[in-house]
Amino acid sequence: MSNVYMVGKPIYEDTLGGGCHWSMRVKKGTLLTLTDVKGGANVGMLFYNPYDLLEKYNAPDTLKCQHTFKLTRGHCLYSDMGRIFASIVEDDCGWHDTVCGNLNKNMLEKKWTLKTYQEAHNGWTQNGNDAFLVEFAKYGLNRKDMAANLNLFSQVVTDDEGNMRYVENASKAGDTITLRFEMDTLVIFHTCPHPLNSADEYPVRPVHYSIAQAKPVTDDDECKNKCSENQRGFKNNALYNFLNEPFPSSSASN
Amino acid sequence: MIKHSQLTEDAASFRHVVPAGDYFLHRIEAGQTLRILDLEGNQAADTLFYNADDPSERYSAMDTIREQGNVYLTAGTVLMSNENEPLLEIVADTCGRHDTLGGACATESNTVRYSLEKKCMHACRDSWMLAINQHEEYGLDKADITHNINFFMNVPITANGGLTFADGISDAGKYVELKALKNVLVLVSNCPQLNNPCNAYNPTPIEILVWN
Q1: Residues B82-138: pLDDT tens digits?
Q2: CA B188, B41, B17: angle at the middle one, nearest 5?
Q3: What is the pTM of this model?
Q4: In this complex, which of A99, A147, A161 lies closest to B101 when CB atoms are compared?
Q5: DSSP H or E run through A251
Q6: In this predicted model, what pLDDT tens digit does every residue of A142-195 receive, in sequence order?
Q7: Cβ separation A64–B109 shorter than 8 A
Q8: Looking at residues B193-198, what average pLDDT do you find?
Q9: What confidence category does residue A3 fall into, taking pLDDT thresholds of 50, 70 and 90?
Q10: What is the rounded (10 degree) CA torsion for A207, A212, A217, A223?
Q11: CA nearest to B174, candidates B149, B204, B195
Q12: A36 CA to centre of own chain
């Protein structure tokens, strides 16, 4: 994470092993930097509005609002309600997938040797679908709340006929992506393999993440000015945040 | 892939015309065949499918395109559910390519795509919101309204990862036909969008036909 978008230093850092899952509620103005520790990582990620869990990350709106199939620096990640959960302010990879979904247990078993918890304890082969379901239940969410997720660090390209190709090890050791949250957000994520990963064995790829305070969004902000759609998205956020945050104490005294 | 159907309209057990801006919600039994017919051409039919016996199992765009290894839908495509199980198969298609990346229009996304002042223009998601509240017997709610198919819509991906909303490749009389592999609910919004070429700026009716 560079200092361009950060106030001070990261206030929390952690590493999730490969095949793990976690969740956290983050405030508007939070910077989240994820780092692929060994290369070839995948981070499945979904966003929800913590105050209205029916509002969630919407991949189709994110793609069509910005006329893009890939996600990278400058792109905003939209909810189904026309608002921006997060902006991608920094990115070493250049291409992140959001249309391939998750592995489930049956798919994993066809691809790799399934290692149960009983057999392998912490070396078990967790899948992205079950990982999301575990985190979902903590907030009262269920499979109906699933949506097309982000697969950060993973690249899937297409040819003229629409045939898809997973790019092996698109992300290198040390590659990072930084998200700046533009509204309060419930972040649910896992480090299970991408469903099109064709490695010989279940890939265990840890991901480091750090959290810091973001500098305020400036008028010349890259993500905000990437396209007129994002300018309008930021206006929707401004109205939402005005309506949902306490009034400044100075105006409350008038 | 262009593939014509052998079924004749006379033999259909059910026919219903859906005007632009309306929804269509109907149960299809396993083994029945559903045709969506573009009556006047270049009309987007935004469509969701559910397992009628447990609607929390539903059409999944991600599972469908990933399992067939191609982002476009056409004859031969098996529509997969969120459990990565087959729900329906496209058995005939005279259009050749259908989109499932672009999602449906909603009033809120219209504010971002076009103008904050267009937030009250009719949108597919409003049709679906009305459908679920007028048909409580199916137990559908907002969480069931998700990533859909845009039959007759053309959304090509460019070599450098862009997404373009191109002129439709559909025409009057073109159709797509699906065989139900489970009992399914079909929920269509006949798209009212006036702000882009997905309906040639002139939304028109579609017809639904079902054969036993």
Answers
A1: 999 999 999 999 999 999 999 999 999 999 999 999 999 999 999 999 999 999 999
A2: 45
A3: 0.96
A4: A99
A5: helix A249-252
A6: 999 999 999 999 999 999 999 999 999 999 999 999 999 999 999 999 999 999
A7: yes
A8: 86
A9: confident
A10: -10
A11: B204
A12: 13
Residues of B in contact with A229 (CB under 8 A): 112-113
In angstroms, the CA B161 to CA A167 distance is: 13
A120 touches chain B (CB under 8 A): no
Q: Do residues A126 and A214 make contact, with C-beta atoms less than 8 angstroms apart?
A: no
Check pLDDT > 50 for residue A254: no
A201 touches chain B (CB under 8 A): no
Looking at the partner chain, which of A106, A142, A236 has a beta carbon nearest the beta carbon of B111?
A: A236
CA-based nearest residue to A88, from A102, A100, A101, A70: A70
- pLDDT band of residue A1 (cuts 50, 70, 90) is low
Concatenate the DSSP letters of all residues of A147-196 into one string: -PPEEET--EEE-TT-BEEE-TT-SPTT-EEEEEESS-EEEEEE-PPPTT
Q: Which residue of B has its CA nearest to A65?
A: B113
Q: What contacts B43, CB < 8 A, 6 or more positions away?
A: B20, B152, B168, B170, B190, B191, B199, B200, B203, B204, B205, B206
Closest Cα in chain A to B103 = A60
- Residue A46: strand, helix, or coil: strand
Cβ-Cβ contacts under 8 Å for A173 (sequence gap 6 or more): A36, A37, A38, A39
* Residues of B in Cβ contact (< 8 Å) with A81: 108
Closest residue in A to B146 (Cα) is A147
Residues of B in contact with A68 (CB under 8 A): 161-163
**Distance separating the N- and C-terminal Cα atoms of chain B:** 24
Question: Cβ contact (<8 Å) for A82 and B143?
Answer: no
The amino acid that residue B33 corresponds to is T
Inter-chain residue contact B147 with A147, CB threshold 8 Å: yes
Q: Is B70 in CB contact (< 8 Å) with chain A?
A: yes
> How far is it, in rounded angstroms, from Cα B159 to Cα A156?
12
Residues 108-127 of B with CB under 8 A from A: 108-113, 115-116
- What DSSP state is assigned to residue A247? P
DSSP type of residue B94: S
- Nearest by CB to residue B56, choosing from A104, A107, A144, is A144
User: Sign of the CA dihedral B83, B84, B90, B95?
Assistant: positive
Q: What is the DSSP code (8-state) at residue B132? A: H
CA dist., res. A207 & res. A38, Å (int): 8
Sequence-separated contacts (24+) of B7-12 with Cβ below 8 Å: B7/B33, B7/B35, B7/B92, B7/B177, B7/B211, B9/B209, B11/B211, B12/B209, B12/B210, B12/B211
